[in-house]
C-alpha cells in the first residue's frame, strides 16, 4: 500500500533541496543513497562532466526474478528558477511554496512517485522483472541529461517518464519535434537624412519577410513563432542589422521541415528584393515521438489504470521532454502525469491525493508488465 504520510514527508524533504539545472549534486547524492538502501545497484554517468554540470545522471538497477521485459522509470532532478530555499507548506490537500519560489513539484513529484512505488513493490514481495531508474540532470535547459545519458547501461524495453501535469491517468503518447531558429538580416547603414538612397534597411527586409510568413498554428500538428526581434541604433541611421529568434514545432518531421524551409524562403525572398543578406540557422532541439494504439506499452497502461480505477487519457502534448529523447533511442517511452500544476511559476502547487494516486498507478504499471 502506498503510504500517504511517507509520500508527503518525502516530497517536502526533497523540494527543500536546491537543485537548479546542472547543480543537482545534493539531490543526486541523496537519491543514490535512497536507491542503494532499496537494494539497487547505482551508477553515476559522465553527463555532468560532458556538459558542465556538478553531477551526472543517476542510473539504478534492481534485477528481477521474472523473465519479462525490463522497464525504466525516469524523472528529472533539476528545477527552474526561482528555486533556491524552497519551502513547502501543506494546506489541506494542497502543497504550495511560500510564494517566493517555485514549489519544485516539477519534477520532485515524479521522483517521489518512483521512490514510493519501488518501496511498495519491495514491501509486497511481488515478483517483477528488471527495474531500471534514471534520474536526469538539466531537463529544463534542453534535455541535457537525457541527451547525454549512458544508454549502454539501459536495457529496458519500456520507459515511464513521470513528468507531466493533468489528472492522474493522463499520459502523453505523442509530442512534437522543435527547431530553434536564429536569423540575422543584414542591410547597409547610411545616414537616414543625408543619403538614404545608399542604405539598405534591415528592418524593412524583416518586415517584408514576416508579412509573407505563415506563423502561429500552421495545422493540427504544427506551430511556428517569432519570439524575439532586435535591431537598430538610432532614428537617423538606416538599420543594417536585425537579429531574430524563432521556433517551429511539429509532430510530423516532414511538416517541420516544410515550415522551416518556408520561413527561410520568406527571408531569402525579402533580402533579394531589397538587396540585403540573411543568415538562417536552425537547430533540432528534440525529435518528435508517437506511440501507436497497438503498441504494447499502451496495453500496460490500460491494465494498470483499470486496476486502480483511474481514467486513462492518452494525450498529445505541445512540448518536449526527456520522453522525446528516450523514444529516439528505440525505447518505447510515455510521459505520465504526476499531477503537477502551474509549474514554472511561484503559484505552482500539487494535490496530495494526486501524489498518492500517481504512486499507486506506477505500482500497477510495474505489476502490469508481461
Ligand atoms: Zn519537468
Ligand atoms: Ca518543467
How would you describe what is shown here?
- This protein has 370 residues and is α+β, with helices and mostly antiparallel strands.
- The chain folds into two domains: 4-175 and 288-368, 3-Layer(aba) Sandwich (Aminopeptidase); 177-286, Alpha-Beta Plaits, CATH 3.30.70.
- Helix content is 33%, strand content 28%.
- It has ten helices and 17 strands.
- The chain has helices at residues 4-15, 25-37, 47-51, 105-124, 144-147, 202-211, 253-274, 296-308, 322-328, 352-368; strands at residues 41-44, 58-62, 71-76, 89-91, 94-96, 131-136, 158-165, 170-175, 177-186, 216-219, 222-231, 241-250, 277-286, 289-290, 313-316, 332-340, 349-351.
- The strands form three sheets. Strands 1, 2, 3, 6, 7, 8, 14, 15 and 16 form a nine-stranded mixed beta sheet that branches. Strands 10-11-12-9-13 form a five-stranded antiparallel beta sheet.
- The chain is elongated.
- The two termini are 22 Å apart.
- The structure holds zinc ion and calcium ion.
- Zinc ion (ZN) binds at residues 76, 106-107, 139, 163.
Amino acid at each position: 500500500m502506498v503510504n500517504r504520510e511517507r509520500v508527503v514527508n518525502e516530497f517536502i524533504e526533497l523540494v527543500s533541496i536546491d537543485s537548479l539545472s546542472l547543480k543537482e549534486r545534493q539531490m543526486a547524492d541523496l537519491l543514490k543513497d535512497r536507491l542503494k538502501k532499496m537494494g539497487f545497484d547505482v551508477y553515476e554517468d559522465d553527463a555532468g562532466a560532458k556538459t558542465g554540470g556538478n553531477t551526472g545522471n543517476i542510473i539504478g538497477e534492481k534485477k528481477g526474478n521474472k523473465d519479462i521485459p525490463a522497464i525504466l522509470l525516469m524523472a528529472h532532478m533539476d528545477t527552474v528558477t526561482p528555486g533556491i530555499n524552497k519551502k513547502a507548506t501543506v494546506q489541506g490537500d494542497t502543497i504550495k511554496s511560500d510564494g517566493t519560489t517555485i514549489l519544485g513539484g516539477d519534477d520532485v513529484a515524479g521522483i517521489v512517485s518512483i521512490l514510493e512505488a519501488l518501496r511498495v513493490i519491495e514491501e509486497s514481495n511481488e515478483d517483477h522483472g528488471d527495474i531500471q531508474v534514471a534520474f536526469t540532470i538539466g531537463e529544463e535547459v534542453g534535455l541535457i541529461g537525457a541527451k547525454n545519458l549512458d544508454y549502454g547501461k539501459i536495457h529496458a524495453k519500456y520507459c515511464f517518464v513521470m513528468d507531466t501535469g493533468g489528472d492522474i491517468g493522463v499520459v502523453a503518447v505523442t509530442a512534437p519535434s522543435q527547431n530553434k531558429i536564429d536569423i540575422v538580416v543584414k542591410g547597409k547603414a547610411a545616414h537616414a537624412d543625408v543619403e538614404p538612397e545608399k542604405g539598405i534597411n534591415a528592418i524593412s527586409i524583416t518586415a517584408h519577410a514576416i508579412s509573407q510568413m505563415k506563423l502561429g498554428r500552421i495545422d493540427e500538428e504544427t506551430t511556428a513563432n517569432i519570439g524575439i526581434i532586435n535591431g537598430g541604433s538610432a532614428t537617423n541611421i538606416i538599420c543594417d542589422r536585425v537579429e531574430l529568434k524563432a521556433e517551429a514545432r511539429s509532430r510530423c518531421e516532414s511538416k517541420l521541415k516544410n515550415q522551416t524551409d518556408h520561413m527561410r524562403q520568406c527571408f531569402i525572398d525579402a533580402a533579394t528584393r531589397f538587396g540585403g543578406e540573411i543568415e538562417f540557422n536552425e537547430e533540432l532541439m528534440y525529435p518528435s515521438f508517437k506511440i501507436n494504439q497497438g503498441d504494447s506499452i499502451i496495453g500496460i497502461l490500460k491494465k494498470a489504470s483499470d486496476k486502480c480505477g483511474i481514467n486513462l487519457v492518452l494525450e498529445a502534448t505541445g512540448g518536449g521532454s526527456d520522453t522525446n529523447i528516450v523514444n529516439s533511442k528505440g525505447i518505447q517511452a510515455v510521459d505520465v502525469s504526476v499531477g503537477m500544476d502551474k509549474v514554472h511559476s511561484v503559484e505552482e502547487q500539487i494535490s496530495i491525493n494526486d501524489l498518492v494516486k500517481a504512486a499507486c498507478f506506477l505500482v500497477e504499471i510495474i505489476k502490469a508488465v508481461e
